[in-house]
Structure formats: structure tokens, C-alpha cells
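During the reporting period the student researcher (J.K.) took over the structure-prediction task from the postdoctoral fellow and processed the backlog of single-chain submissions. One of the processed entries is reproduced below for the supervisory committee.
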Amino acid sequence: MTNYIREMSGKQYLERLKETDTVIIPLGACEIYGPHLPMGQDLIVADRIAQIVAEKTNALIAPTIEIGESSALDTFQSTFSIPRSVIEGFLDYLVGKLLEDGFKNLLFISGHAGNVE
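J.K. obtained the following C-alpha cells:
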């Protein structure tokens, strides 16, 4: 059984909503780390932590934010950055939807310092 909302059918999602009121929202980034790490390292770590927590708590895992505010690294071609206002707008929508669906506990796990503010 998956804890990822994105992997569930609508019917499965509605059933799982009856079992939990906790959802985890992973946030990451896609930026340069040099030749030794994947560009999505921040999300890879946040996503794995979300998996571990969800398995232990029966929480669901919301759709993730894979690109973060990485403007400090914009000079590198291999960095994808979105403005903080876009992240905030997405989170406003997502949190509103999750609350509307009945979640009461929201846990944000950010692997990227640029998303923390």
C-alpha cells in the first residue's frame, strides 16, 4: 500500500482519508551540487524522510515541490529556481486543498534551506 497521494486512485485516497488526518509535504530543489551528486538531492533526502515518517505514522504524502528558491545559484545553467512568491502560492493552494479534504496535521519536510523562510 502506498502513502503517496500521487500514486492513489481517487477511491483509494478517499478511503485513506478515513484512516488518517496527517499529511506530509516534502519540499526540495533542483540545483547544481557539483559532479558528485544528483541535482535533486534536496528532494531525494526530504522524500526519503517523508517515506520513513509515513510508514511509522500512517500519514499520507502530498504532491511534492521539486524546485525551490535557488536564486543564489542562478548563474549556473544546471540550477532551476522559482521565485518565493510562486512557492508560497502553490503552498497556499495545496494547504487549502488538504485542509478542505479533512487533514488536521500537516508536516513540512524541506531538504532545501532556500524553502525554509
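The committee noted the following: The radius of gyration is 15 Å.
J.K. will present the remaining backlog at the next meeting.
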